Amino acid sequence: MIDLLLAFDDERALAEPLSAALDVPLHRIERHRFPDGESRLRLPARLPARVALLRGLHRPNEKLAELMIVAPAARELGVDRLTLVCPYLAYMRQDMAFQPGEAVSQRHVGQALAGWFDRVITVDPHLHRVSSMDQVVPGRRGVALSAATLLGAWAARHAQRPILLGPDEEAAPWVRSAAQAQGLEHGTCIKQRSGDREVCVALPQLSFEGREVVLIDDVASTGRTLAVTATALLQRGATAVDVAVTHALFVDDAVALLAAAGVRHVWSSDSVPHASNVVSLVPMLAAALRG
Ligand code: R5P
Q: Residue 201: helix, strand or coil by DSSP?
């Protein structure tokens, strides 16, 4: 359990219901941006022993710099056990050196978080080549929750006996758990990426003719992965394609691109604030913080 929740102003949509669910006070971190881009951060003058800081890491770079300041400041102000609640944990996809000399960002960001926090709670982190969040934050407690069954339940209620489909093999565990909980058919595609916005997808040997399909993935960024998969599904006779993702990054024209590809509905959890948010992570985060 925690004694107090800390959050930046732009996290209010999740922070307020989370503090209410836990019945603990919520304190805002005041931030002043200096003209040169630096931040001045102000926390409560005294803090209790067990504090959680809510900070999602979409658009992560500036937020990481602020965590580097907030975490030691919180300890100076009295915190003994500091938890980071990070619904979207950035930099998890860069988990190996794809070119010689390339930094393995997952490892270095994880090590930095392990230096600042005692426990990191996140949702559907992109763990492909490591098996657990404990490995991401070495020597600390890492907790990986999943929105897959919530998204699967939503899909089952809002689409007609859908096939749940993951756009790549990495999505297989999420799709399987979402589908099995609802007794739905499921499968995964094979994806090849040749650039930030260049993606090819091969559909599995399932019959999509006359079926509604819901694409399930952990994260949508440019939306290319989902758009090319939706196009292929409609060409194979699917009657409707919806998408359900945990982390709705949807950069630039991503949502328009999905609409142009024929996607009917875009659904997401509220890990990243977005118009597509339909599934609340609050009960799941509150339960993890009570543990
Ligand atoms: C990668 O493997 C992830 O699971 C997503 O499929 C990917 O990040 C989506 O990226 P984009 O929306 O830019 O295609």
A: strand
